[in-house]
Amino acid sequence: MTAGGERGRTAMRAAAKTNGAIRARLLTLLALLPLLITAFASAAQAAPSATSTDTQAAYLAAQLRTSPVYVTDQLPREIPQSTARDFAKVAQRTGVPTYVLVLPAQATTRVDLLDAVHDRLGKDGLYVLIDESTVTEAEAYGVQAPAKDAATVAFYELPYDAGPLRSFERFADAIAQGAEKAAARAESAREKYNAGDEPADLYIGPSDREDQSTLTGVAITGVPLLMLLLVPYVRRWWRRRPGAAPRKPGPQGKSGKQAKGKGKSKSPGRWILAALALGTAVAITLTAPLLFDQTRSSASPPPRAIDLNARLDRVAKGLAEDPVYADPESPRVLDTAQLAQLHDRIEKFGSSKGGGPVFVALVPQIYEDESQGDEEAFTAAVRDKLGGRGGVYIVADPLDGYINVFNYGLALDTYSAFFDLPESISYGDSKADEADDHLLRERLDDLMVILAKTARTDEPTTPGDPYPVTDPIAENELRPLYYGDFWSGLFLGVLAALLFFGLAAAVLGIVRVLLRRRNPEPIPTSELPRVSPAAPSLSYLRETATTEIRAMTTAFGTGETADARSRDRYEATMVLVDEASSAGGSGEDLDALRPAALVVIIVLARATRAALAHEDTTRCCGVNPLHGPAKSSRHVRVSTEGNRRRMLPLCDRCLNDTAPNDYPALLLTLPAPDDDSQRTPYYEDDLLSAAPEGYTKLGRKVRESALAH
Fold it and tell me: Of 125, 72, 124, 73, whose CA–CA distance to 94 is shortest?
């Protein structure tokens, strides 16, 4: 064999060996291909989440490199960007390097956001995350600071409406106190809060101001009117209440002119009351604004024009450079490949027949933003910043996943296409709710398909002007106190005064009834013949005697104005009262006296009041002394047995309205001390036998009886 042939065979064997190795490697790669595909797929699925965290954290870290305090431009109604200086001043109180992020609450839901920002920034210090209302999270990296306890203090010590700046101030103060004091303060605040001792709100709302205005109006008219109605009524009620001392009678012989002059003397009192009522109304008017001195309903300061335009300028600038703008402050919902696919679809639609520009803003829509969360108002403002460029504007919220579409100037059948978008595209379904990215890529892809298929029209369509949003500068300003419901409150005050007066009159009426039961008024003299019983019970005599004693002592007073006749009758009555006291009773407790003595007390007490009133009465009715004063005398039959008659003084009823045979039935009989059923004529009692002879002899009989005992 030649050398050349040997080299050829060697080459052939080497080639065969090489081909076998290649085939072996190919077989190995084919065996590993499924595993590689799975690994790539898993990596692709995980990529958006990692990109989301990296992008948001990287952007925020870049902002903190410029300034240690970053305030979002998406909350101008609650936290204007111009407050960054205030947050920076407060941050200096902590005593350690402090980095502050003020972001929308929904954009900070990732628990590792501060960790990610710290990793990107690479600086140790105290990192604080603040949302629309309070400090939500704080972490200390490489420094000694009680971050968790300080956040607890800020959360529990302040009400919800205190505002983020005040919350951060409380947080910084707790940090400056040190770990031990901050921990004790946090525990105390937590215990109070859990026990129900929540801090009171610092601000009131528009409805509260309306209530204050109404209350002020009610007070201005109601209180003075109630004074004018209630004070004279109570004064009269007090003078006429049961048991009240009667007004002293004026001297006899006054002329009508003098009486009229006396009546005029009351007018200064009425004028004084009117002046006091007017002064009260003026005082309430002047002091109500000092009491209800709130002027704003929120802790947020009024935003400036630059605050309200900051986000709009940012979004408009981004859309001018790229038809898709993703908010860098929010978690990223579209990765690079998905953005490229969306750009391709936008380009195809723009080049299609009847198509046009498409602008996609992946920006949160929050109630505290410049548009008050209104997507249409936001879109109109951004379009205005873009010089009124026509096209389809898509607003996709990366935080809640909502999608809204608006057509400005393209010849598209907007009403049938956009107004009837499937809810799975506009709001998302359950799967979209559970996904971190709200499946916005798939939903935007479906939307672009619908947009490409939308029927073209002959005329371009444009929505009307959006509903105006609330003025962000004046929305937290409370109405003046004397405005709106204040005027209706004036009318309600009149009604309230009348209602309260009616209730007060009803209550005083009930009190009058109760006082009458405890302190009954004597029966009027004119009613005595008609209502006085002929066979009174022992309890009736005791109650009537008690009432008459009280009325007599009230009328007699100190006795300075009493004449000799009234004083003589008063002293005779008090002899029997003293007899009850010596027996263990009192003027209010006459249980120790027998029925005859009780009748004498009633008769003499009434006679005393008659004398004090200058009434010329000297005798009581002889048929029934309880009938009151006698008018004249007549022979009457006092017993049903025989025809015996007696000359007795008679009251008006017994004299004129009684038949001769009816007198025995009207004759006063007294109960036996131990048995009410056994009764005897009153004149059979030695003490009462002098009653028909006149009050003077009856009083003498009382004194003689007292001396005999």
Answer: 125
